[in-house]
């Protein structure tokens, strides 16, 4: 099996656009394993919480900080993932947190415009030397609320964020102007496609009024030198232990352990 590997050309695309879409970063059998475990995972279900959008629709997620020996951590640690992230961060990477996003049919809520660094700035990270990696476990389409991004908006630097309902959202005056000048892209994805995006890229997603769920795994990474000056979680500056690429197919790792350091509801 030859697994996908990010190149310096990919880094040029990421630096220019603020995001990089890699089709079939995971093989079909790998997605089947991950999604199969996630759907039946009682701990994921128990530890999930939701966030309301402006219309009151709710989107469900489960978030944890430290990597462990679950199958989700196997993905976050696997060689192609970590080497890809390290090319894009231009340095050694640590794992900040991972989450399983569960946007359910008919009821899954929207995410307002934001930059991830808009949140993480408040967590005490000095530099935006951070990125998110979103892997689609199901198809993500316009209809079921796929991610939308403003191409190149990571070059704007950090935009002011305030509260928007139960979520934190970016200053809409700037978002509207950026949309106009830079253009909005709907990132439709097939299961197993992976999107790498810069922590200052403006993004959002619509609610899911369709019949199909949109599930994805997002892992956030930090450059190890960018240790936050506050907070208690150590994972964002702790060296990563990598695992070989074939560990997902070998089913190394099961569902979540109840002992993981979940974000409290
Ligand atoms: O995947 C989505 O719909 C957006 C989620 C997101 O941007 C986030 O959790 O920071
Ligand atoms: Fe985000």
UniProtKB/TrEMBL annotation:
Pfam family, one: PhyH
Domain of life (superkingdom): Bacteria
GO molecular function terms noted in the UniProt entry: dioxygenase activity
SUPFAM superfamilies, per database record: Clavaminate synthase-like (SSF51197)
Start and end residues of each Fe2OG dioxygenase domain: 95-225
Keyword set includes Chaperone: no
Keywords from the named record: Dioxygenase, Iron, Metal-binding, Oxidoreductase
Cofactor(s) in the UniProt record: Fe(2+)
InterPro entries (UniProt xref): Oxoglu/Fe-dep_dioxygenase_dom, Phytyl_CoA_dOase-like
Membership in a protein family: Belongs to the iron/ascorbate-dependent oxidoreductase family.
Annotated protein name in UniProt: Phytanoyl-CoA dioxygenase family protein
Species the sequence originates in: Autumnicola edwardsiae
Species lineage: Bacteria, Pseudomonadati, Bacteroidota, Flavobacteriia, Flavobacteriales
